[in-house]
Amino acid sequence: MSRPLRMFTGASSYTDLPKACCSPRLQQGGLPYAREAFADRVYDMDGQLLPRSMPGSVWTDKEQMVDQVSAIVQEGYVQARARDGSGTGRLPLQADTICLHGDGERAVEAAAYLRQALSRKGVQVQALHAGFGETS
User: What does UniProt give as the signal peptide span (predicted)?
Assistant: First the structure.
C-alpha cells in the first residue's frame, strides 16, 4: 500500500485517526505518519468519529474543545459516547497532531482560543515537524 500511495499522492507524510484501518499499513510501509485527533468532534467507543448527522457530534463550545484536547494530550484519553446512546466512557487515545475543522462557524476564533487555553495549561503548541505535508 505504501508505494502506490506515495506515487499517487506525492505526499511525504500522512495523518490518520489512531484507530483507523490505514494507520498500521502506513507504519508498516515506513511512511511518516502522525496520529490525528479532533478538537471539535465527538468520538464513539471504537475510536471513530460520530457522524455529523448525529445530534451533539460536533463541539461548538470552545471550553468543550479545550477539555477534549487537554484530556488527549495530557492524559491520553478522550471521553467517548456509544453510538446507540447507551453511555459514555474513557477511550485511550494518543495523538501527534490536533485537527480543528475550518468549516465550522468561528473556526479561526476557536483555534486562537484553543491555543491560548492550552498554553495556560502548560501544553506546548508547535508545528508537527519540518517537511510535513510537502510533496516530493
Answer: none
